[in-house]
Amino acid sequence: MDQPRDATVLVVDDEPEVTDAYALRLRRRYADVRTAYGGEEALAAMDDDVDVVLLDRRMPFSGDKVLRELRERGYECRVIMVTAVNPDFEIVDMPFDDYLCKPTDREDLFAAIDQQLEAASYDDPVSELFGLTAKLAVLESEQTPEQLDGSSEYVRMRRRATELREGLDVPPESFEEMLEEFAAINRGRK
Fold it and tell me: Hey, what domains does the chain have and what are their CATH numbers?
């Protein structure tokens, strides 16, 4: 990519070397990359210009709290959890848009951000479907089939994803291509 993409990305992690490494990679691709070295700093750095937040979960002021606070304050940015926390069924009701388990390679990181920027241009049902798809993918990579089948939350999410998919007003070819690209990202542990 010759020109950086016109987007603002906020990288949040309490480990400065991790934050700075992500930011260094991202600055080659996105016009404005900001850093925050913890949850409180992330909330202070947040404004309406931020398009995507890369958010670690395990921090003294947790990423879960930051995520909740961002949504309560009405920020409509896309949030990608990038974390070493093993996802469990507690993620079902968390209002993030994507979830990547560390370590995350550069191409998966770029693809996830680009897809969230793309998803932001669609109506709410498409955005909701991508969020559900991410949650389903990460749970499927971390849980056994028996655990999934035994989870009413998982079954409910699968049902909702099917309903959304059937009711979308997006050309099927372009939607299928978007889903294939979305599914190609490695969200689970390597």
Answer: 5-183 (3.40.50.2300)
